[in-house]
Amino acid sequence: MARHSFPQGFLWGAATSAQQIEGGRFEGGRGESIWDRFATLPGKIEDGSNSDVACDHYHRWPEDIEIMKDLGLAAYRFSIAWPRIFPDCSGKPNEAGLDFYETLVDALLEAGIRPFPTLYHWDLPQALQDRGGWSERDIAERFKDYATVMARRLGDRIGQWTTHNEPWCAATLGYEEGHHAPGHKDPAEALRAAHHLLLSHGWACQAIANEAPRAELGIVHIHTPAYPESTSPADEDAARWFDGFFNRWYFDPIFRGAYPEDAIADRVAAGHLKSPELPFVKEGDLEAISTPLDFMGVNYYSRVIMKTDEKGRRLAVKPGPPESLTDMEWEVFPQGFYDTLMRVSKDYAPKKVYVTENGAAYDDPIDEEGRIADPRRIAYLREHFLAMGRALNDGVPLEGYFAWSLLDNFEWGFGYKKRFGLYAVDESSRQRIPKDSAAWYKNVISANAVSDELTPTSHGDSSAVEL
Ligand code: FCB
Q1: Are strands 295-299 and 353-357 parallel, antiparallel or unpaired?
Q2: Following DSSP, what letter does each residue of 406-417 receive, concatenated?
Q3: Which of 110, 254, 376, 439 ranks highest by number of CB atoms within 10 Å?
Q4: What are the φ and ψ backbone dihedral angles of 429, each rounded to 5 degrees?
Q5: What residues contact 307, with CB distance under 8 A and at least 6 apart?
Q6: Which of 51, 301, 357, 377 to mutate to test the pocket of ligand 1 (most atoms within 8 A of CB)?
């Protein structure tokens, strides 16, 4: 059995987001978010749930910090709920919302855990959606105001700010495919939304830098590597197309200051753009968007295999077999994690990389003794940690890793049925119940190493859980 040790000071963390865990929907002056509204629409959330209470983190955060301490986390990635800070369009920040995050941040610091906040993890104030949301350029000004207020209040205590979480999802799932709030299905609108998300990132970076000149700035992108099903030019082209639409449309403007030309041509061919001149891009936008960053956040879950069918359609190949899939029907493919880390560091030369999300949804039962054995999650994490180790050896400037997620939570359109947590949350009592993976992760963190062999975990005595 071999061990892979991580560099000293490697930042082990866990991630959550406000809409998914906080609850406290009507407390502390919080306004409505687009996800609160979306959840009231019939059929939008698979299990008919909403996130009014979620994990009740709004009240239970002290207990959650205890869990983090017990795990030995060095950092905690969370998001700030914009509707707690600006509940309406009055332009006046809500003191109770600011106080909530200030208290949380102070308690994390007190616990020796680095706060790693994200300003936008998809919970747009409904009041701003009513004015057009991300499709209107004005929203970038509003985001800048919000970033300014947060940096003014917390800038002396936060060393690293992340503006957005996965703008691809916010734009494409929210405005093009309609699976996410606000549920629109308009590709042209989605392209405008994507641009305004990116623009707001650039302007927010400038605003934070003004308020907190020493702060490090970054953004979180999801990266899904695309592999052709065969070596045929048509399949290669399908993989290129996916990469342009999903990855490069977001990485290129931020790290290279330009939208990818081939992907623009794809959008023109599809009729989503009238011409390659992007009408929503104004002078100076791309300079703002490509403001140099201190770090890149990368989320990785799985890969896609692409093909072109007989009718010339570019399609994702259905992944399988079933035992290779998580409950999201995402293929477990650690090599894709390695490829992702190598690719982003080679193509975009970030100064530092953090894996800001990675994890697996599996629904494992609680047994009579109250134990939740989740060997598939442990196997997933182990293999991905080993892939990360190889990427580190091969020169990726990787500084840390955040497991998705600390807790089972409100998984957007899927409701509570998809469980990513290291801890389960009892449906009625909201008690946090550690899964075996929590004890396993704790051991990895304390050893700062992972072994390359699957060993059975044993319950009760966490020191007996193998790395
Ligand atoms: C990511 C999201 C996160 C969670 C995981 C499973 O795309 O950022 O909130 O939903 O997927």
Answers
A1: parallel
A2: SB----GGGTTS
A3: 254
A4: -85, -15
A5: 228, 229, 230, 234, 235, 238, 314, 315, 317
A6: 357
Tokens, residue 374 = 């989740």
C-alpha distances out from residue 462 to 8, 359, 380, 441, 452, Å: 23, 21, 19, 10, 19
Q: What is the pLDDT of residues 68-89, one digit of tens each?
A: 999 999 999 999 999 999 999 8
The amino acid occupying position 328 is M
Whose tokens are 């990116």? That residue is 198
**Residue 467 burial (CB count, 10 A):** 18
Q: What are phi and psi of 412, to 5 degrees?
A: 50, -130
Q: Give the distance (Å) from ligand 1 centre to CA of residue 233.
A: 33
Query: Active-site residues: which are they?
Result: 166, 357
Q: pLDDT tens digits, residue range 339-367?
A: 999 999 999 999 999 999 999 999 999 99
What is the DSSP secondary-structure string of 420-434? --SEEE-TTT--EEE
The answer to whether 189 and 139 have CB atoms below 8 angstroms apart is no
Query: What are the residues whose beta carbons fall under 8 Å from the beta carbon of 341, sequence distance 6 or more?
Result: 298, 300, 353, 355, 387, 388, 391, 396, 398
User: Distance between CA 147 and CA 449 in Å, rounded?
Assistant: 37
For the whole model, what pTM was predicted?
Answer: 0.97
